[in-house]
Amino acid sequence: MSDEVGLEKRALRAELRERRRITTATGRAEANAAITTNLRALATQFEARTLSAYLSIPDEPGTRDFLAWACAEGITVLLPVSRPDGLLDWALYDGEEEFEDELGMPAPTSEPLSPNALDDVDLIIVPAASVDRTGMRMGWGRGYFDKTLGSMQQRPPVYAVIFDDELVDAVPSERHDQRVDGVVTPSGIVAL
């Protein structure tokens, strides 16, 4: 990573973390309800029978209500499990128990599948710090999702979940950073 781009990314991530941190409980609840509605519409639009997503943590846009809906609808849900080598394994999620993986992120308790488990999903939903209008996604700096998306030979639609003000004109990027096909925000679904 070039020093200049690295500094830009760190500064933007710090700003976004602070914005997320100071969001009111009411504002967060309203945003999460709207995101759930929009994620359900996205899964329906793509007629997803299998998808990959992630269990949101408190400061992230909420995915948990959507995942509960997907499980109740009989949609097969795969969630990431971090590995020490920087790759992601995937595990089936049933909406029940979870644990903390190598990075302290929530993950399902089912037996991990290989990184290749994503080959057959209909839709991929990823976290992001910010996404620009060309679809360039900026994550939180560990590169797990960039490695995963960059290694796929055939990729289904990939949508990042962000708050409205995190869809911006441009984000600092490097060659390894991966684009997404769209974003889901409280205001709606935006194809990029």
TrEMBL record:
Designated name of the protein: 5-formyltetrahydrofolate cyclo-ligase
* Top EC group: ligase
Q: Does the keyword Magnesium apply?
A: yes
Q: What Enzyme Commission number does this protein have?
A: 6.3.3.2
Query: Has the keyword Transit peptide been applied to this entry?
Result: no
| GO MF term (any one) | ATP binding
Q: Which UniProt keywords apply?
A: ATP-binding, Ligase, Magnesium, Metal-binding, Nucleotide-binding
Give me the residues that bind ATP, please: K9, R10, A11, L12, R13
Quote the Gene3D superfamilies the UniProt record gives.
NagB/RpiA/CoA transferase-like
One biological process GO term for this chain? folic acid-containing compound biosynthetic process
Q: Which InterPro entries match?
A: FTHF_cligase (IPR002698), FTHF_cligase-like_sf (IPR024185), NagB/RpiA_transferase-like (IPR037171)
